[in-house]
Amino acid sequence: MEIDHSDNGSFTTERPLEVENFSPPSSPEVEGGHEEPIRAELYQPKLPRQVLSEVVKTHYLTPERRGRTHRILAEYFQGRWSGRLKPAALPGLKLLLSDRKVPPQPLWFAAGLANVRKLQELPYHLLHAGLWEELRQEVIGSAEWLYCKSRVCGVASVISDLDQCFKYMNCSETGLVRDALILMKPSLDVLSGHMDQSLFYSELLARLSSLSSTFCAVIGQLCRQCEDWLQMCQVPVLIPKSSFLQQPGGALQHTLTAPYGGVLCLDIDVAVQLLVTGSAGGVVAVWSLEDKQLVHALQGPPGAILSVKIIESSTNCLSLAADGSLRRWSLKSGQQLLCIQEAGPVGPTPSSVHLEVSDELLFVYSWTQVKVWRPDGTEIHLGSSEDASLVMGVLGDSVVSLHGSDQVRISDPVTGTQIGVKLTRSLTPVNAVTSPNHGKMFVVSEDGFLHQISRTGKQTITQFPLQPSLFSVSEDEKILLAGCEETLSLFNISSNSVDRFLDLQHDDKVLSACVSSHCRHIISGAADQLIRIWSVTTGLLLDALCGCNSPVTSLLFYDGFVVSASMAAASVQLWSLTYDARHKPPAHIPLGSAHAAVAKDGDQVFYVHHQSQREVMSWNNRTGSLSERLAVSAEVSCLELAQHKRLLLCGLKSGTVLIYPLTFPQETLCIPPPESRSLVLCLAVSSQEKHLAIAYEDSVCLFEITTRDNFPTVEGPLGKATLSLLHAPLSCMALLPDRRLLYGTSCGEVKLHDYSSSESSNLQSHCSSVTCVTASNWGMHALVGSQDGMQRLWALNPVALDHTMEYKGLFSEGVLCAAFSDSDQFVFTGSQDRTIKVWDVASGERVYNLTGNLQDFISEKQQKLKSHTGPECQRLPLGSTDETTSALFPTVHPVPRSLFMFGIKILRDSVHQLHLQVQFCLYSSAPPSSSSGKLLYVQYVYSPVVRMVTFRNGFVALSLQGSVIQEAFRCPDHINPDHNPLRTIKAQYRVTSSERDRDSQQTCVCDLQDFNPARINLNFVSMLRTKPSSACILL
């Protein structure tokens, strides 16, 4: 007897139980028509196969035996039977130990060949054998296991495993890991089977690292494994040092993504647990809310879907498209059942056309027309007078229209009967909504009145000072919602009046709103990408849900969940209102702040929320709270932060620049406006923080940042660069250490101005607005990026174009910010397409030239270099007893796997004062390669990065969402020539490099080998006072 029981060791869904019932016939007949006695046992009912299986298991498979079986199978898949002696009991023999010849059970048999049976069965056996600790260590807390099964079996399979483990074990850490994978699922589904391991580990680390200290057993172990693997990775990779992505356990539960464009409309049917959405790409998507899977993708016309409705006992749905077509679809088969062309106006917006369904009729109407059909598609033609009217809405089976300015008609399209209502006040409608339960319509007029018109012809007019863009009623039709700009007003609907009882203030324009089923909560969505939960009784803000990444244009309430969508995003998000508040994401600065600056350690962020706001907020990122408010005298136009000297610079529209010394909280410095009183466009601080450039509308002035009695001061202007008012305004700039200014304009011009010689030069222009100008730490390179995604890397000594880097993806690629690594070997860029990219600046040799007075250089550089001394520093043995030489080279800059050498050139200025030109040459231990300017890594961070500063071997960045991103970059010494940074991204890039003569640099390398620094004698400097030296002596 073969028994098919459910304990098959895999997490698969069993088929529904099919029970076969048989009963013996009352009059059995045999062939030929003759009756013959039939044995009774032939007609006994057959036991269903599943029932028989359960009976046998209950009798023979006791819980102890079941657990022992699962334990043996778990040990088999763990590899404990391979190459080991196991006890065996054979008939007629004593218990003996024997090698069962069991093959090993690794996770990967070979590269790309996974152990699928182990992936499918081991979690089941560990769970039912009660080996929960092994389950935590080898499955739930194993980053390699999670990645391997996600890639081979799909992330949905891993989520199903973790969900069953969570239900059996009631382990909170298991639930958090499951929720983290649910949040990652949309991006992993897009990658399908081409998921990259570094991408998986980095995103998992970016979501879980903040929880690792609290949940050490599983999540802490996972984070350590991810970080260790990334540190040893053989390809370039960014390693998250903080949680900057949506962490698990919060309100966001699921993201349903389909690549069909922004979601314009949606509808839910609770009875069948279905969600229907209409997208800008012309697709009607049907989702199962039970398992959060896409059921159907119904392809309609090429235009947008403006409205969807679930009808006819939840078996069909209607869709209205921008081409005017109305379609009916089967939710079971996904087939199109009906198509009506020219059902509505062509090309309207979703807010200007409406689809209404009554018991017997279908209505499509806008302000200027209405069309009516029966469910079978038969059109009901209306009279010509109806076509000339202004349609205000549908009330039951009747059409409410306005004729002239004071005559309302309520028409029944089936019977042709009409009810005329003479208004006591002329009406110019702005917005209208119907209340079928009350049998009335609410119409807002331009002159500030609310007209209530009932089906019987009764009218009521009350003052209504709002002209709402959002106008709707709650599901029970007890509350009227009116959204106007940043205010959502609530009105209580009674039989004869509408009473205003609550005003809810937002930080941005209100776009959507709904009321919970129990009428205790108001949910609102705004342009600032936040979903707010309000108390209906008190008006208090109960919660603010962040993570939408786009303006919230649609909201629905469903069974304790909030369903949100946006016209700008191809996804629908499900939010729980009953989530554990302990796992609420950490607070951050408001989304889309007008101006912001971030400290290099990421602990402090300064921002101005609204452009009209006259105060600068200081945000403590460690505590997630506001620490200080700095008042300003006018609107802020730009913010900049001097990282080392701890100075916050605030440019105002009045032309004034306020400087806040962060080490002296009570003090404020002020640079008065210029005579022209023009506003401050931009601020730039040199990398050494010695100089400050202030860009006005007509000029750019240079100032010096110094100290007096240990207090910072600003002196100047030392120089002025005049800007032509005929050209486009300056958009961004960078100040170089040698008092040169590189800036770009909004029309794409790029200029380099030298304050020492008062000369300007034009560099190659861009085809669109320059959005980013960033100088390297040593002032030898600069990156100029524009709105069209074009990037140019310039060498500044001498000025030459090194690389032109172009990147094209599916979204806007405009470069917003950039930062060079500490060694200037790499440059990080943040773009509008929500990615961070890492580019290789150059490989092998680089030269830096700094000019200044010898004694000043020695004293200043010695202090600066001493401040960089760390455990990674390497000291260069100079072999000289000369005190000046020893003071000149006390240490080297802490760059891993690299070494700084030095060279000097003695010059003479006009007053015969000796100057020393010092040349720093960075020689990488890795041999030069052809990867200069190459794209090394692309990371998707779900939000555009707007600010970025260098920090250690990585960067600290600020996203448009308000989150602080802190990451380290690791690049191996040798990169595989086949390395493709776009292997998981649908994009392409091109780097065009300029040919440059490097013979002199190669000569420097050769001369260095036989040079003895002890040979330098600075006493011979006097011999050079009559003639400048043309030789460069390398140390």
Biggest beta sheet summary: 5 strands, antiparallel
Overall pLDDT score: 80
What gross morphology would you assign?
flat
Q: Terminal Cα separation, in Å?
A: 89 Å
CA radius of gyration is 36 Å
Helix share, percent: 10-25%
Q: Stretches where pLDDT falls below 50 for ≥5 residues?
A: 1-43, 843-930, 997-1035
Spatial sequence of strands, sheet with the most strands:
54-55-56-57-68
**Annotation, overall tally of beta strands:** 69
Structural class: alpha+beta
Number of helices: 13
Indicate the proportion of strand residues: 35-45%
Pfam families: WD40
Keywords: Repeat, WD repeat
Organism: Crenichthys baileyi (White River springfish)
InterPro entries: NWD1, Quino_amine_DH_bsu, Quinoprotein_ADH-like_sf, WD40/YVTN_repeat-like_dom_sf, WD40_repeat_CS, WD40_rpt
Question: Nutshell version of this structure?
Answer:
This protein is an alpha+beta fold and 1035 residues long. Helices cover 15% and strands 39% of the residues.
